[in-house]
Amino acid sequence: MTTRQAAEGSPFHQERYSSSTSLEKGLNSVLVKNRCAILSDPREIELVWFIQYQSMQQGGLEKFTANLLSEFPEHLGTPAMLQIGKREGIYNADQVRSVRSARGLFYESEFPLGGEIRRCFGIFTAYSEDQLQKNPGLAQTVKAIDQRKIEHRRELEEESKTFPTSYPVMTFRDICRDKFNKEVPELLTQFCLDPGINSDGLQVVTDDVFRITVFHDLLGALYKFMERWETRHLAKMAITEVGKKVIDAMEYSEAERALVLIEGVYGTGKTFPAKVWCEARPGKRRYIQCPSSNDSLDFFRTIAEPLGVSNALSMKGTQMRSRVNDVLQAGHLSIVIDESHYLFPQASTRVALPGRVNWVMTALTNYNVPVVLVATPQFMSSRATVERNTFWAAGQLDGRISRYIPLPEELEESDLRAISRMHLPDGDEKSISTLVQYALASKKRLRGIEHLVKSARHVARWAGRDKVTFADIKQAMKDNLMPSDSALNTAFSKAVAPTKAGRRQRDSKIYVEASPEPSQPISAPDPERNLGAELIVTPDRKNMRSGNASLSTA
Questions:
Q1: Contact (Cβ atoms closer than 8 angstroms) between residue 339 and residue 292
Q2: Rounded to whole angstroms, what are the CA distances from 275 to 189, 270, 301?
Q3: Lowest-pLDDT range, 36-40, 268-272, 291-295, 530-534?
Q4: Crossing angle for the helix pair 413-423 and 446-462, nearest 10 degrees?
Q5: Model's pTM, two decimal places?
Q6: Tens-digit pLDDT profile for residues 39-72
Q7: Tens digit of pLDDT for each residue in 495-507?
Q8: What distance in Å separates the CA atoms of residue 231 and residue 237, rounded to the nearest whole number?
Q9: How would DSSP label each residue in 14-43?
Q10: Integer Cα distance of 537 and 550 in angstroms
Q11: If you placed Cys at 26, which of 56, 179, 266, 353 could pair as Cys (CB 3.0 to 4.6 Å)?
């Protein structure tokens, strides 16, 4: 569009770069969904969505391509290079000749060997003896050319003596690496979007004529990378009883395509296993943290971002909702919605219906989309409040919940020890025991372990060390956490929750103090009005929470 382009010499505006393709973040999941609609292999569908997830990460597909190559360096090279089997060192003359057979990638003129004479291109027009005898000038010219050829041949022979007899292996691998890094991002993009490409065409070749690959079994490497990705992420998670329950519930939801509710108090370790479970297989799952606002646009933008749905600031909530529905209802992905108690209205519960909960039921559960809701007990209390105030049919939600998983309020010491070991893998037994005892005594629960380890690392950094010791943990508790916890508990104990009568009295006081003495009468004198009436300040009950009040005469 001409309106989206800056004219030559026009004044500088910050927005002039906003339409640059380099700023695009990831592959559009709506288009990826269309591509997966024609695939029948569930494993291939998961791979496409896995690549789409990688395209949304920092660095995009270029970074993913580099990570893939660093994970499988043994796959890099032409068939001749892989047959030789060297990844470093030197190629001798015979090996160089074998590698140079990859036409379209390595040329003899670029890698000449000692004793090899480079080709000499000259004038090869043949003349008969009769022609040369009849034209002495032509004969003299041909003789001079032949003499020059002889001299050039002699020069090439001398040059060939200076050529090396071997080449470093990395010289050839660098050429393959440059071609791989240049072409694979575009190839993966086509694989995720182009319905005409299949897995057999997922090869990095030199050109369409010679079809020499520079990376062996790209498809197999992608599948192995996806498996290693899952293994590494699951290894981050400490195996606790709560974690086992959370993972089992999520596995059930994904297998049976059902709605599952996991409910537990804060600090019991719900979020971490849910997030890791999704990050381990992003080709099948996506993690969403429900926003605390009541804004529909904010809600669907929060869902659209991890899915890879276009969520431009100019888009309306209904536009984003339709795109989110389109992607999720395809059935390729399951979602985990953390902080699900925020699905209920956070204000005006007397009149507001739970639109977000209704959307989960009608747009997801009714279409067999696997959904896991992770919430605190606030979920059930909000459900009861909305049902009581609005006569919302809560039974529709209750009937759709296939499984309800209540989590224990307290963690076993063995679970705390496993989590402490996860946060401080190099810690000694005294350090781990200290972390466990602090978690048992602190109101922060599992967060206490995390905060103590962070404080200890800060102490170690100040001392110029990378490894946390027991002395660092002891100092962090004495100088940082214990004074902080004590001050925080004191602040909490001083704070008194206001009663409804106290809140009403405060609102009236705020209004009276904020209202200046009127310089003019509130209204024109009315002969029918009792001029001796008193002015009474009455809180406005409809807006009591906002501190407004109304004036009336008695």
A1: yes
A2: 26, 9, 19
A3: 530-534
A4: 30
A5: 0.78
A6: 999 999 999 999 999 999 999 999 999 999 999 9
A7: 766 665 665 665 5
A8: 11
A9: GGGGTT-GGG--S--HHHHHHHHTT---HH
A10: 6
A11: 56
